[in-house]
Design goal:
Layout: H1 2-18, E1 27-30, E2 33-36, E3 52-60, E4 69-70, E5 75-81, E6 83-88, E7 94-97, E8 101-104, E9 109-114, E10 122-130, E11 138-139
Antiparallel strand pairs: 1-2, 3-10, 4-9, 4-11, 5-8, 5-10, 6-7, 6-9
């Protein structure tokens, strides 16, 4: 339990540390820096004995997106540059710009993940918190492919 709480605290610190611009969450000036809560998300119950945190950088060229996929672990996405459109099955498509965050539950089918811009690249930082070994993503069962093409 202590490791789970420590991992959740680490997520909050990482998200707050990455975010120095954008809208949303509470914001507080500390000296000359600005600190804001980029996201606060309750995590599902996990085995606190074997937690692994992984930060993945995804760079989408203009107009490109990922094929539909699924992640076995909860994911917090942070848009570092540009604009990202994202949709998990059962939720509406969201448009996120630099400094904004979103959450993906474990095993959710990620139907849309793309850069809608025709001229500018986009960079996404995906923070995975996993309690078991294995791939961080895989194809979505029965999903249509060739997104962003």
């Amino acid at each position: 339990m202590k490791r789970t709480l420590a991992a959740i605290a680490a997520i909050a610190v990482l998200a707050a540390g990455m975010a120095v611009r954008g809208a949303g969450g509470r914001q507080k000036a500390v000296g000359e820096e600005i600190v804001r809560d980029a996201i606060s998300q309750r995590m599902p119950e996990m085995d606190g004995k074997n937690l692994t945190a992984t930060l993945v950088e995804v760079i989408y060229p203009p107009g490109i997106g990922s094929e539909p996929h699924s992640h076995p672990c909860p994911v917090i996405g942070y848009v570092a540059e540009g604009t990202i459109e994202s949709q998990v099955k059962g939720q509406p498509v969201g448009t996120f710009t630099a400094g904004q965050t979103f959450y993906e539950p474990p095993n959710g089918v990620h139907l849309v993940s793309r850069n809608p811009s025709k001229t500018k690249p986009a960079k996404l930082l995906a923070y995975f918190l996993c309690d078991h070994a294995g791939p961080l993503s895989g194809p979505a069962p029965g999903a249509v492919t060739n997104q962003g093409k």
